[in-house]
Design a protein that fits this description.
This protein has 13 helices and eight strands. It has helices at 43-46, 56-68, 105-113, 130-133, 135-138, 145-156, 158-170, 197-215, 219-240, 246-266, 332-342, 347-354, 363-380, and strands at 5-8, 11-14, 18-22, 35-40, 72-76, 123-126, 175-179, 294-297. The two termini are 38 Å apart.
């Protein structure tokens, strides 16, 4: 769905990239006005590669419908590639799944505040700043950890505080949840996508050969060989890809601290005036109590959930040359049509467009955000039925 550009208060604005109303089953319908959820942000909030029904914002809305029996109206201005505040490109009119820097997330907020349909949201979901830092650098392709740290502080700290200050001013009755970023790459990541059939086949063959060899040895020799083999494998991994995941770790930790700082500052709490981000304050926004308005959703951090790991929560690279490892995301077909339309004469741009969901939350990743946000709201809104997890 394209976000049509129009003018509001003399400035360019965009219409929502995704809008729908979720209705309860007639037997479960309860009296009351619909809830409204407003989403602004980048590809993570948009749900790159996901069908509409699997996007985190939809899952959260559906849970609210099921628990309350009231309709939920979803309005999303989020789109892939959005920067938080940086404006170095022209305003774009593209579908939500295609990369464009603008409308920035700050501009999305301004547009939403001018629209009657989104004027009184009960819940606002937002994120932002990874595109200024550079998603490829965060994934370990170029840049240093020092660069990542400096840019994360620069682009995630004050710009997020400014956005949250505007959000709380323009939407005084809304609960606001900032989605913290996930760990993109870890020491468990496989650059070729560990969840694919090729990696699985190689792992199985290696394991079978090892077992056969060990069975020929006495138990003590087997234990010794296994220990030495593990040590050599670990050393080889360090030598072959030293610190591939370091940039991701730096961004994960620093962005978490900076977003926590921004929430504390926008809430009127103490915030240091240094050029860095202090550690998350004692009243961590990821720990919620009744009535809290500014919250942060931090999904479980398990290195096995990272890109190409055994339990990855991210879309893997689609390998055209290995037809038996296709790995298409859910929305590939629809996005491919848009890629061909908007990158008609730009083959490099079209190829990048087709694989854009790489390392974004897949169905499992979206459910992790849904679960985390729902449990935050269960406490803030005193609706225990929203949280499915044992706590």
């Amino acid at each position: 769905m394209a976000a049509a550009i129009y003018t509001c208060h003399g400035a360019p604005c965009n219409k929502p990239t995704y809008e729908t109303t979720l209705a309860p089953a007639p037997a479960n319908s309860m009296p009351g006005s619909p809830y409204t959820i407003l989403a602004i942000g980048d590809s993570a909030i948009w749900g790159n590669g996901l069908l509409p029904e699997h996007k985190a914002v939809t899952l959260i809305g559906r849970k609210l419908v099921d628990v309350t029996g009231r309709p939920v109206h979803l309005v999303s201005y989020a789109h892939s590639g959005a920067s938080l505040a940086l404006q170095t490109e022209a305003m774009a009119d593209l579908p939500g799944g295609l990369n464009s820097q603008r409308p920035t997330i700050t501009e999305q907020e301004t547009c939403a505040a001018a629209e009657p349909v989104a004027l009184h949201p009960d819940l606002i979901l937002l994120d932002g700043c990874i595109n200024e830092v550079g998603a490829l650098h965060v994934a370990g392709i170029g840049g240093t950890t020092a660069d990542i740290h400096k840019d994360t502080v620069k682009y995630c700290r004050e710009p997020m505080r400014n956005l949250l200050t505007s959000v709380t001013r323009d939407f005084p009755n809304a609960t606001v949840v900032v989605l913290s970023y996930w760990r993109i790459v870890s020491d468990k990541s496989n650059p070729f996508g560990g969840s694919g059939m090729v990696s699985h086949f190689v792992d199985r063959m290696h394991a079978k050969k090892t077992v056969v060899t060990l069975n020929r040895l006495n138990p003590e020799a087997a234990k010794r060989r296994e220990r030495l083999g593990s040590e050599r494998k670990a050393d080889a991994a360090k030598e072959s890809s030293p610190g591939w995941w370091d940039n991701s770790t730096e961004f994960y930790n620093t962005s978490h601290a900076c977003l926590s700082w921004a929430i504390a500052a926008a809430s009127g709490g103490p915030s240091d005036s240094s050029d860095d981000c202090a550690p998350p304050p004692a009243n961590d926004a990821s720990k919620t109590k009744k009535g809290d308005r500014l919250l942060m959703a931090v999904v479980p951090d398990d290195p096995r959930f990272a890109y190409g790991a055994s339990k990855t929560h991210e879309w893997s690279l689609r390998l055209k040359f290995l037809w038996w490892v296709w790995r298409k995301d859910e929305f590939y077909g629809e996005r491919d049509k848009d890629c061909r339309q908007y990158y008609k004469n730009d083959f490099n741009g079209r190829d990048g467009c087709e694989i854009d969901p790489i390392a974004h939350p897949n169905v499992l990743g979206a459910r992790a955000y849904y679960s985390t946000v729902s449990c935050l709201l269960a406490d803030a809104w005193e609706m225990p039925g929203l949280c499915d997890r044992k706590r």
